[in-house]
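Input record, target 12 of the design panel.
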């Protein structure tokens, strides 16, 4: 136990890690991306179907900011020497970031179109006068937050910014479910895909540390090795599982099949 807790800690930080270009890492990146891509498609589908925005406002602000920055804030859009060039991801990952950014633009449209009513119910008058300025403010502050975190931590992969915002994302989905008091704009498939969308890149990060950077399993599991990242990953998973359970129960409470949304047959 003393060896694990107090032995030498591998000298490796997030800022030093880059995902290699090998076939294995391309496959892992694609697997990771597929889950979030399917989650986005389901969120957009349910948004148009239920006439609502199935993504909390702060989540939307953080997502669209992260995806814009790590898709476009680097070569060939910005010179590598530019102070504002922070994106250092693989070509495959940045291509997915571009696609997700476009998905987020659609969700922004849904939020502008339907989000006003959601806030008006909670704060009468707010939705009519202040919702659009508030939405723009949230996106602006989210952009600054993602950018400054990445610059401060020298994180060209966007890992810390991604998982810090994922803590908010996962917890805010729970809060959104309680605020709405219904399953509108939500589905079990979105919840599960979102969970695996977080787990998959976490597994890829662990595999990269071990295979590409020679970190042993024992060293990787030491509590002092990247403790913040481990906390963020585990915290996201706890919130995601909590949301899955609560959403399932809400479907049952509404008398709907959680997987088909059809009324439950009662004898």
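The sequence produced for target 12 reads:
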């Amino acid at each position: 136990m003393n060896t694990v807790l107090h032995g030498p800690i591998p000298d490796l930080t997030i800022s030093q890690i880059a995902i290699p270009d090998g076939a294995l890492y391309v496959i892992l990146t694609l697997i990771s991306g597929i889950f979030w891509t399917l989650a986005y498609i389901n969120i957009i589908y349910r948004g148009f179907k239920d006439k609502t925005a199935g993504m909390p406002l702060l989540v939307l602000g953080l997502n669209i900011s992260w995806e814009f920055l790590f898709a476009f804030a680097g070569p060939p859009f910005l010179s590598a020497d530019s102070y504002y060039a922070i994106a250092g991801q693989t070509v495959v990952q940045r291509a997915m970031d571009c696609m997700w950014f476009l998905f987020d633009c659609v969700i922004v449209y849904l939020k502008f179109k339907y989000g006003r009513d959601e806030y008006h119910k909670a704060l009468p008058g707010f939705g009519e006068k202040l919702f659009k300025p508030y939405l723009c403010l949230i996106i602006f502050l989210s952009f600054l937050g993602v950018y400054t975190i990445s610059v401060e931590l020298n994180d060209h992969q966007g890992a810390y910014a991604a998982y810090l915002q994922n803590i908010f994302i996962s917890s805010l989905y729970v809060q959104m479910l309680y605020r709405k008091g219904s399953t509108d704009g939500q589905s079990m498939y979105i919840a599960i895909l979102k969970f695996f969308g977080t787990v998959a890149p976490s597994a890829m990060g662990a595999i990269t540390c071990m295979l590409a950077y020679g970190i042993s399993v024992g060293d990787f599991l030491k509590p002092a090795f990247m403790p913040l990242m481990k906390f963020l990953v585990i915290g996201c998973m706890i919130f995601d599982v909590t949301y899955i359970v609560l959403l399932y129960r809400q479907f049952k409470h509404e008398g709907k099949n959680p997987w088909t949304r059809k009324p439950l047959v009662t004898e």
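The radius of gyration is 20 Å.
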